[in-house]
Amino acid sequence: MADYTDSDREPDSADVAREVLERARGVVEPVMRTAVQTLPGRMQLIGAYHLGWVEADGSAADSSATDSSATDSSVAGGRKAGRGVPGARNGDDGGTAGAGRSGGGKLLRPGLVLAAAKAVAGPGTAGRAVLSAAAAVELAHNFTLLHDDLIDRDRTRRHRPTAWTVFGAENAILAGDAMLALALRLVAGELAGRLAECVIEICDGQYDDCAFEQRDDVTLDECLAMAGKKTAALLGCACALGASAVRAAPAAAAALEEFGREIGIAFQLTDDLLGIWGDPVTTGKPVGSDLTARKKSLPVVAALSAGTAASEELAELYALERNFTELELRRAADAVERAGGRTWAAAEATARVARAHAHLAKAPGINQAAVRDLRAIADLITRRTF
To answer: Which of 291, 248, 243, 237 is CA-nearest to residue 108?
Structure first.
């Protein structure tokens, strides 16, 4: 956690968000490790490797190798088209809160579980039910990552070979399935039902995203709806599980879920902007990787839908059946910007965070003094570096 030496200085929202996510790692990762250790040997190895805890031979991982600002790949965070460079990009958690000390991503979703519980019941509420829910959400998230790496043929994650390239495609699928089973085993009753429904929604969004690859007429509304299922659903579920784990009133849990869904859309919008204009040092992916992959990201679809000369230029570039040259990559990024895709996406992300804050302000039974952590995470999502 941050060490504030100036007693007059209040931590800004980025400091608060980093504290929340560091705290989540400290209390949730042990629960995850205990769960993964119950898997049969081979599944345990693949799961622990994917989570950044061990090397392929089972030895302890070098945290400096897996500690990165690279973005995670996620069924809940966007998908590349089949053309392009395998492993060049796929993002989810990166850059959100600085480096994770144990690999395995930034634990954004567990952070939301803990923050939502705190918003309902106050500090000191991270009991067994809350920690189990937080671990379950992160394990479910990693189930999607294991499958998504294979669907996208991504060869790297967090600067290491992806699990399917190390252990084989079939084994990676099985390890992902086992991870989802672990997640559902950690929760029960209403919480298990919520998580299961969320996973179904994510899979539906993934289906839509795959279908979009074969279409040239994807609309912005369709793209937003898909992102709502793939990205926003799990962030909303995380908030709802945190609230439900401390027996929040249904109206409070619903308001927190809507908060999570709104910041989920903001997250995807920001991630898509990073996929075109992000600094490779920060994002861990090549410049313009989403364009190289012909990804129908939100800024791209907004630009294609604008009906301008730049839109037509972008459509012609996307129709090329080969990798972009360096000049074509720059032209594509410029076309997205000239068609208004960058401006629209940035403004929409800001608007979604504002809507998320509005849900918190209206939420019944929530201590408004205790929502600092949630607000900080929401604000940090749109402050990632370009």
So the answer is: 237
Instruction: Find out whether 352 and 265 touch, Cβ atoms under 8 Å.
Output: yes
User: What are the tens digits of pLDDT across the range 298-343?
Assistant: 999 999 999 999 999 999 999 999 999 999 999 999 999 999 999 9
Using an 8 Å Cβ cutoff, are 155 and 87 in contact? yes
Q: Where are the domains of the chain?
A: 13-381
Q: How far is CA 239 from CA 191, 217, 250, 261, in A?
A: 11, 34, 12, 9
Whole-angstrom distance, CA of residue 196 vs CA of residue 192: 6
Positive/negative CA dihedral, 320, 326, 327, 333: positive
Tokens of 112: 């939301």
Grouping H, G, I as helix, E, B as strand and the rest as coil, residue 10 is: coil
The Cα-based distances of 350 to 16, 257, 356 in angstroms read: 19, 18, 10
Residue 122 has which token pair? 């106050």
Residue type, 42: R
- The answer to whether the CB of 257 falls within 8 A of the CB of 129 is no
- Is 55 within 8 Å of 61 (Cβ atoms)? yes
Q: Could you tell me the two tokens for 181?
A: 């089973």
Q: Which fold has domain 13-381?
A: Farnesyl Diphosphate Synthase (1.10.600)
In residues, how long is the chain? 386
Rounded to whole angstroms, the Cα distance separating 36 from 147 reads 17
> Residue 293 has what pLDDT?
84
pLDDT digits (tens, 9 = 90+) for 160-175: 899 999 999 999 999 9
The radius of gyration of the chain from alpha carbons, rounded to an integer in Å, stands at 20
